[in-house]
Amino acid sequence: MKFFGVKNLRVSTKEGKEILSGVDFEINKSETVVLIGPNGAGKSTVAGAIMGDGRFITSGSVKFLGEEILSLPVSERAKKGIFMSFQNPVEVPGITTTEMIRSVLEDKRGGFVLLDEVREGISENAKKLGTNIWFSERELNVGFSGGEKKKNEILQMLALSPKLVILDEIDSGLDVDASTRISKILRDYQKESGCSYLIITHNMRVLRHLEPTRAILMKEGSVYAVGDQKMLKTVEKNGFKAFFEQISEKGVK
Q: Which residues, in sequence order, are CB contacts of 75 under 8 Å at separation 6+?
């Protein structure tokens, strides 16, 4: 049984403008796959479609653990073990991170979860992030800096123990030290849980302590090239434009 696969994924706006034009890729268990491409290439759209963003009209297939999930609501995808960290996490007044995590755990387990259990887990994970338990007692992302919002996303990830983690520019807003810390946390969580990552990034710093097995380069709504860490380093050094020109000269697309 394949762990995760996207086949011929096509996404259009309600007005009929095509955003994704037949995207195909797979992710194996415990694998780290990096999704890169210039702004507007469709990377966040891929992530949103996988997670069930209702703004998109989607056709094609998205299978997780052998099951087609395109027809499932976001909550059911989350219950099955898919987690997504947003590029721009929203502020949610009136509910704390602790309350949100407790609610999701109760929905996932189908029963009551003690508040003390939730806080104990949050406290342990907050130490890994260099924060404390009171960080999660604030209203969800309200008044948080960009870096704090990203740390809060990782805190939620650790609390919910997902099998497939989609990180959309988790490193934006983080300083060098925070990026390094989160890279280590992601590495350790993968070793402990066997989870898989789909990481969307423009900054390779967050990959420092991970071992990406594949890099998927997108351009104008489709997969342009698939490579390894060598391709990542080439793009990081020379940029997308130079890479596209180099590929075109070789006659490969």
A: 107
- How far apart CA 127 and CA 131 sit, in angstroms, is 6
pTM score of the predicted model: 0.93
pLDDT the model gives residue 77: 96
**pLDDT band at 253, cuts 50/70/90?**
very low
pLDDT of residue 252: 47
The rounded distance, in Å, linking the Cα atoms of 160 and 170 is: 17
At the topology level, CATH places domain 4-250 in: Rossmann fold (3.40.50)
Q: Are 150 and 171 in contact (CB under 8 A)?
A: yes
On whether the CB atoms of residues 83 and 47 are closer than 8 A, the answer is no
SS (H, E, C) 223-246: EEEEECHHHHHHHHHHCHHHHHHH
Say whether 129 sits in a helix, a strand or coil.
helix
Instruction: Write the single-letter amino acid at 36.
Output: I
Q: Report domain extents, the chain.
A: 4-250
Mean of the pLDDT values across residues 16-38?
A: 95
| Long-range contacts formed by 193-196: CB under 8 A, 24+ apart | 193/161, 193/163, 194/29, 194/30, 194/163, 195/30, 195/162, 195/163, 195/164, 195/165, 196/3, 196/4, 196/27, 196/28, 196/29, 196/30, 196/31, 196/32, 196/33, 196/163, 196/164, 196/165
**What does R_g of the chain's alpha carbons equal in angstroms?**
18
